C-alpha cells in the first residue's frame, strides 16, 4: 500500500521479544531492564494472524528482530508459518549471532532467506566492552556456519562508536573481502541510550576505509529491503554499505513500519505514534476492523525523522531500542 506521502510500504520489522542475551551500551542498560510481561508479548498465533493481514495490504517482506529474536523459543516454527503466507516472499532475521551456530540449521529449514548479524568488533575485549557480556567467538562461528548455506544472504551490521570500536572498522570491513557477505555501518541514532553516546559519521568511516582499502565505488544494484547505500572495493567479495538515518536521512523513500513485541504498530522509529494492535486483537475486533486500523495507521506514517532538531516534537519515542525492535 501507499502512505499519505505516496511511499510504497511493503516491509515490516516484527519484534518477537524485548529480551536480550547481551546488553549493548547504546541499546540496553546493564541492570534494571523493565521487561514486558509475558502475557503482553504477542503469541506466535497473533503474529501470524497479523502477518496474514499485512500480506493482504501489500506487505511482502518481513524482518524478524527484537531484543534478541533467537532467545525466543522455536523461532523456526514462526518463520516457517510466516513464509507459507501467500504474498510474503521474503523473511529475514536480524540477530546478535550469539545463538546462531546452534539454530541456523533449523532456521534455514524453516525457509529463512537472509540473516543480518550485528557485530561491532572482532576483538574479544572491545566486543565485551560494548556488549558487556558477549563472546565474539560464538558470533564468528555463527557467521561462518551460516555462510555454509549458499542460498542465505548474510549481512553484517556494525555501529561505530568514537573511541570505542573505531579501531575495529578496518577488521570489520575486511570481513567482506574474505567472506561472502556484505558489511553495513549504521549511524548511531539518538534513541534511548544512544542519546548519550557519540557515533561516527559516514564520511569519517569512509575516509578510514579508503585510506586503507582503496576507493569505495558506488554500487547501484538492489541489495535487499533497506536504505543502505552500497559501495564496492577492489578485490572484495561483498559490498560495504552505510545506513545513516541522522545525517543522510532516507525518509522520502522509507518503505517500512514496525511491530513491537507487545503488539504496537509503529510507523517511524523516532516517534511514539502508531496503534496498539494487541488490544484490538484481544478485544475480539473483526478482521475487517483490524485491517482498516492497520491501513489507516500506515497511511498516516510520519513524513520524516527530525533527529537533528533539538526538542523538535512532542510525540518522541521514550522506549529503548530493544523495546522498539531496532
Ligand atoms: N538483537 C538483535 C541485533 O542486535 O541485531 C536485533 C535487535 S537490535 C535492536 C537491531 C539493530 O539495532 C542492531 O544492529 C543494533 O546494533 C542496532 N541499534 C541498537 N540501538 C541503536 C541505536 N541507538 N542507533 C543505531 N542502531 C542501533
Ligand atoms: Fe541486544 Fe541487539 Fe540491543 Fe545489543 S543491539 S542489546 S544484541 S537487542
TrEMBL record:
GO molecular function: 4 iron, 4 sulfur cluster binding; cyclic pyranopterin monophosphate synthase activity; GTP 3',8'-cyclase activity; GTP binding; metal ion binding; S-adenosyl-L-methionine binding
Cofactor info, note text: Binds 2 [4Fe-4S] clusters. Binds 1 [4Fe-4S] cluster coordinated with 3 cysteines and an exchangeable S-adenosyl-L-methionine and 1 [4Fe-4S] cluster coordinated with 3 cysteines and the GTP-derived substrate.
Cofactor(s) recorded in Swiss-Prot or TrEMBL: [4Fe-4S] cluster
Reaction(s) the record says it catalyses: GTP + AH2 + S-adenosyl-L-methionine = (8S)-3',8-cyclo-7,8-dihydroguanosine 5'-triphosphate + 5'-deoxyadenosine + L-methionine + A + H(+)
Enzyme Commission identifier(s): 4.1.99.22
Positions contributing to GTP binding: 13, 94, 155, 256-258
Pathway assigned to this chain's UniProt record: Cofactor biosynthesis; molybdopterin biosynthesis
Keywords linked to the UniProt accession: 4Fe-4S, GTP-binding, Iron, Iron-sulfur, Lyase, Metal-binding, Molybdenum cofactor biosynthesis, Nucleotide-binding, S-adenosyl-L-methionine
Biological process annotations from GO: Mo-molybdopterin cofactor biosynthetic process
Keyword GTP-binding: yes
Any Pfam family: Mob_synth_C
Assembly: Monomer and homodimer.
UniProt similarity note: Belongs to the radical SAM superfamily. MoaA family.
Known role: Catalyzes the cyclization of GTP to (8S)-3',8-cyclo-7,8-dihydroguanosine 5'-triphosphate.
The protein's name in its UniProt record: GTP 3',8-cyclase
Protein encoded by which gene: moaA_2
